[in-house]
Design a protein that fits this description.
Length: 137
């Protein structure tokens, strides 16, 4: 990092880590679905395989956003926010389920909300060079 760049705040590094965690979880789920579609006995092998490929492709979004956040790229905030917002949908579904799925929903919601809070933090937006619009007095 050169001297003229703003140092990366810890909150931004944490936001990148949360985005990377979501990306890795998507990739792992995709690989699992793909392997089970190819080697397991799913009801619909084609659906399992396509679901796996889709999750692997979707994992690229938060992983690219995490890399961009670490490099202080302002464009990376948008995909990271969208990914965290989208994670709230399955979290809500898991929270409405029963048994062992509820703690998984709580964990997913906590990760997504943590990522959102870190990304909208003024320190983070300033480090990314995103300025709030000027207010008319």
């Amino acid at each position: 990092m050169s001297d003229d760049q703003t140092p990366r705040p810890a909150r931004l590094t944490a936001a990148a880590a949360v985005s990377a965690l979501e990306g890795l979880a998507l990739a792992a789920g995709g690989v699992y679905m793909l392997v089970m579609g190819l080697l397991g006995r799913p009801d619909s092998p084609t659906q399992a395989e396509m679901g796996g490929v889709t999750l692997i492709a979707l994992a690229a979004i938060p992983l690219a956003a995490a890399r961009g956040l670490l490099r202080l790229r302002s464009w990376s905030r948008g995909p990271a926010i969208i990914t965290h917002l989208m994670a709230l949908i399955p979290a809500w579904t898991l929270l409405r389920a029963s048994g062992a799925l509820i703690p998984l929903g709580i964990a997913l919601a906590a990760v997504a909300l943590t990522g959102l809070v870190l990304l909208v933090n003024p320190t983070t937006t300033e480090a990314l060079g995103i300025r709030a619009p000027a207010r008319d007095a």
